[in-house]
Amino acid sequence: MIGEITGIRRIRMLYLQLLYRCNFECLHCFHGKRLQHADAFTPDEAINLLTLMRQQYDTEAVTLLGGEPFVYKELAQVVRYAKQDLGMQVEICTNGYRIERRLTEIAPHLDLLRVSLEGIGSTNDHIRKYGSYQSALSALGIARGLGVRTGATMTVTSRNIDEVLPLARTLEHYGVEQLKLHHLRPVGNAADHPELLVSDPAAYVRLREQLQAAKLTIEVIVDEDLSEHGAPEICAPTGGPKQIERIEADPRGALTMSCKAVGRDSHAFWYDKLAGRIDHRPSDSDELTLAVPGVVYGRA
To answer: What share of the chain is helix, strand, coil (3-state, %, to 5)?
Structure first.
């Protein structure tokens, strides 16, 4: 259905939000009040969507997230199926909080563990949860010991923009391969915390200059909205066989192609869990009608 409407024939990665439930209530979380909702994929529903994406859109990778994916009881089942049965690259994006036992269980089938951090020590813990910083670093160390590659994500805010470089240095010590920096979008909980927004775009310029001068060994990937004038307005590719980098499925089955539409209920497509198919449900505010641009990433 996506191909028929958009011409997109290949989607490289599925971001699969298994559930809304989380053991954190981060100040910037785009889910907002939905963190309390019970919506979730059953293991069969998740497996059916993974199979559909693999077969119809040649999807080669999946990132499992939530909510918090490690509170999803059937996580190991979904990870094993994606890796063993479908041959997909499997990544998990997690807060890293007390995940040691379950991480050890799924490590043989996991290609990358990506942990979310929002600064050093108390800066991170104020935004996320008390004790979460040390727990996240512990998870990264355990993953390294298990032979699992690691990455990290950070949403840049007014509270932590000065700690991006110190965090990158710390992550280097733990053998983390990549730090991915996100622009804060005022949806969900972030809409209730406007003080987290970076008010001076020149601060992004200074940040990028610091990163470029630091000669880091860790790769830093930056959302191009973290620039003085923001990212270019780039939408779906044109010409030749069309493909996009990612599509995100939320626990209700709503599908979103652009991160800039996530959290805004701008869904043009839905995965019908009962029928096992993707439906087109157009509206005046969906991401296709509004031509919501994709997020552009580049190296710092």
So the answer is: 35, 25, 40
